[in-house]
């Protein structure tokens, strides 16, 4: 249960779902998650979201300025 709730915290953080973050954090703590585990789940979600946003933005930047992206 704890792991499921921590995953939900991470997903909510990645999507910016403020209400869901609060609810899932409460459930995670009730299931035995520590402060550090909850924080780590939030950080992971935020990193995933930031990476996705950066990826989209940098691809559009490359398109705008005719920069070839090597994959």
Span from first to last CA? 39 Å
Low-confidence stretches: none
User: What is the alpha-carbon Rg in Å?
Assistant: 16 Å
Determine the structural class based on helices, strands and strand pairing: mainly alpha
Number of helices: 3
> Which bin fits the share of residues in helices?
over 70%
Main sheet specs: none
- Strand proportion: under 5%
Mean pLDDT: 90
Order of helices and strands: HHH
Shape: elongated
Number of strands: 0
Tell me what you see in this structure.
The protein has 71 residues and is mainly alpha-helical. The chain is 80% helix and 0% strand. The chain contains 3 helices and no strands. It is elongated. The relative contact order is 0.15. The model has no long low-confidence stretch (mean pLDDT 90).
Question: Keyphrases for this structure?
Answer:
mainly alpha
List the helices and strands and how they pair.
Elements: H1 2-15, H2 18-30, H3 35-64
Helix pairs in contact: 1-2, 1-3
Structure summarized in a few sentences:
The protein has 3 helices and no strands. The chain has helices at residues 2-15, 18-30, 35-64.
């Amino acid at each position: 249960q704890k792991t499921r709730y921590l995953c939900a915290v991470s997903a909510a953080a990645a999507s910016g779902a403020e209400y869901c973050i609060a609810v899932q954090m409460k459930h995670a703590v009730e299931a035995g998650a520590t402060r550090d585990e909850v924080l780590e789940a939030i950080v992971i979600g935020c990193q995933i979201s930031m990476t996705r946003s950066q990826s989209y933005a940098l691809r559009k930047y490359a398109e705008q300025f005719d920069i070839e992206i090597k994959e």
